[in-house]
Amino acid sequence: MREAYLVGAAQSDFGSFPDESYRSLFEQAYKSTLASVEKGVAPADVDEAIVGTLGVGGRQIGLPGPAVTEHVGLSGIPCTRVENACAASGYSVRQAVQAVKSGMADVVLAGGVEIMTDLSGDATRWWLGVSGETEWERLSGTTFAGVYAQMASAHMKAFGTTKEHLSHVAVKNHRNGAKNPHAQLRFECSLEDAMNAPTVADPLTLYHCCPTTDGAACALIVSEDVVGEYTDDPIRVAGVGAGSDKVGLFQRETYTGVPASQRAAKQAYEMAGVGPVDIDFAEVHDCFSIAELMAYEDLGFCEPGEAGSYVESGATDYGGDVVVNASGGLKSKGHPIGATGAGQVAEAFTQLSGKAGDRQVEDARWGLTHNVGGSGGAAVVHIFEKEETA
Amino acid sequence: MREAYLVGAAQSDFGSFPDESYRSLFEQAYKSTLASVEKGVAPADVDEAIVGTLGVGGRQIGLPGPAVTEHVGLSGIPCTRVENACAASGYSVRQAVQAVKSGMADVVLAGGVEIMTDLSGDATRWWLGVSGETEWERLSGTTFAGVYAQMASAHMKAFGTTKEHLSHVAVKNHRNGAKNPHAQLRFECSLEDAMNAPTVADPLTLYHCCPTTDGAACALIVSEDVVGEYTDDPIRVAGVGAGSDKVGLFQRETYTGVPASQRAAKQAYEMAGVGPVDIDFAEVHDCFSIAELMAYEDLGFCEPGEAGSYVESGATDYGGDVVVNASGGLKSKGHPIGATGAGQVAEAFTQLSGKAGDRQVEDARWGLTHNVGGSGGAAVVHIFEKEETA
User: Fold this and answer.
1) Which of A244, A267, A382 to mutate to test the interface with B (most CBs of B within 10 A)?
2) pTM of the full predicted structure?
3) Across the interface, do A79 and B378 touch by the CB < 8 Å criterion?
4) Deepest in the core among A31, A200, A218, B65, taking most CB within 10 A?
5) Interface contact A83-B81, CB threshold 8 A
6) 0.90 surpassed by complex ipTM
7) Residue A308 — φ and ψ, nearest 5°?
8) Are A183 and A332 in contact (CB under 8 A)?
9) Splitting chain B (390 residues) into consecutive groups of 10 residues, what average pLDDT does each group show?
């Protein structure tokens, strides 16, 4: 297998942008991505593009991939739109890695975009709900927060996880996100804020839920044959893993973990030849606080059932075992569905390039990204390694 | 680059099936695909799945990929949904080839599915229109037939192409489709029928337009390392090409051809090391008769402007240069958007396996499939070779 490298990545600002379109947000992310490449890159170098989005297609616009690439001047090259709900652009990046490893392309742009804040109705029900099971969950009245609330309740019952544990996730991620100039919710919150916020779906309060977000993100994946043209400090895509599962939570054997994440992590660790203990930082899919706790367990950072005490101990904060969601995560940075996976990769690139400023993870060498579709119908994990340079 | 092989492929019946769902149609195609593999295949062998669909996602069901793979018992493996309008599953197959060539998978299921006939309104406007440009074409009143009618008018004006030429396409494809047990419109039509049918969008009559279709199709792509486990008569994926373009016709430099198809064909021929003259049969994207005529030119079967006289001469019929749309094409076999590309590959597999019955192309060795998204915002071409066996 030939090696694939991450030579550039960036996101647009995440937030509510009534004056932007899916095209203009993608353009922001694209231009910032080109600018992030150490030695520069010419648009003509790009052999292929892959664009993740849930809603742009759902809005009765076919071909959203070619629609955004034509806007940035990349028209002509092979361009594919992928959708795996909230994991759309995690899968874009995975497909870009396959394209490079296949030998069919040397330079591939993987990205994602979503506009979510222009709905007058209930975005949780419509946007996130679509990511879960529709026929038996959403159409029978279950909100997407309700699905994750069932997982939180099950985790609490099985392992003694508490609302305070959930709140520690929010506190940490808001503290990190407050330092991220591209984050949507750039303010800190206290444990009391998170505990006492209005309930969205018991036991989840407002601070246990990610916001509704517009945004875009891109990453540039290149082959070993050309990586030297773009950087002298290569970041290798060391591991890639993906897994699927029953789309409906009610059809699964467990409510206290995400088997698709476990499968994806196993594949990615095996391919990279490293384990959870080697990872310096991780961007994990915390659409709801319980999702981050389950991710600790599914990714092997702690044992099953121990995530509550693990976050409380500070193990996932700066100075701990593994810094989780240095970017602020979906909770504070925002969750523009189709852009989230590529946005995680953008943070990994920024950290491994040593350019994360106030939120820099020191001596970061191994970074992991973890992107979940729906309540676990799909998951994808990437492991990036900053190679030692001579 | 390691080689990829096509070891099985099949489609469901194409037609109007009010008692079927997107899941049940996919299951039909999946089961028939497994059954088409010479030495058999166990579902547990499948490493990854890629599912193309336009509308299942558009209908507010996220994760349609995992939703159909869980239904057929493939839950757990990496599964991605791709969408490039009417080229969705042509791109599924392409992505499966990349997955195999990347070394990340040995056995990949590529498929597609669409349910179109349950709309009470104008399917041409809603389903096909979405595949074109939305903001400036569809929402300003242009039907999708209207977009292709503009291309037909331009071709007529530039090259003297006639309504009779367009009608020859319909006559040939209906004659072929009448022999295809899985086709939607299994009846012949005369030149007079095609000429005198009601106008849909001038100059296109009803017989110059494909029907509205429900259906699914799958293909199984495997690596050179395992192909011997599945067949002793390997069919190699010799060439793959793809290209994109401005989504809106009005933004392009030409109305008389599809530059995305030209780009895709060039890539595929170069990779395969063959040219148009080597191709024994082709399944081309004849959503409207003019699209088949442009395909002759874009794929290099004849010179630009000569497609009208080319079809009239019988060059694309049995006994001619290249048999085009032996299956009946989109015109007679039907066009379930997300299933069309994989359906073309299913016909290529059937032909190269020598199992096409009354519509068999004799001594078929090289087959080509050509799938277009929208009015040419995306296109993908595959070239398959039946290898010589000892």
Assistant:
1) A244
2) 0.96
3) yes
4) A218
5) yes
6) yes
7) -60, -55
8) yes
9) 96 96 96 98 98 75 88 95 96 98 98 86 62 77 91 98 98 98 98 97 97 96 98 98 95 96 98 98 98 98 98 98 98 97 98 98 98 96 90
